Amino acid sequence: xxxxxxxxxxxxxxxxxLGEIESAVRDRLSRFEDRLTRVEVHLTDEDGSGNDxxxxxxxxxxxxxxxxxxxVSDQAGSIDQATSGALGKLTTVLDRTFxxxxxxxxx
Length: 107
Description:
Distance between the termini: 26 Å
Low-confidence stretches: none
Radius of gyration: 15 Å
Strand order of the largest sheet: 1-2-3-4
Mean pLDDT: 87
Number of strands: 4
Number of helices: 2
Order of helices and strands: EHEEEH
Helix content: 25-40%
Largest sheet: 4 strands, mixed
């Protein structure tokens, strides 16, 4: 599973947080690792002010092997909170997606 992280220029400490974000993504999605080819994370500060308003956005797109990509997003007061919220949503979507494939009648 390839993890790609994209940020905008308004986020402070971008370089320092990239390793933490990648580690969180790999940890939370480890059970899907064999089924995902790539995960793209897009982090933005919607208004660019850096204030603690719910303007930090995390959009995650996961690409299951041989299927259409799925994406989720979350907004929060910090990048960590937005990433955690988006990862929670993504695990729910992937559970449903892969659960439908393996729980069909006769399989």
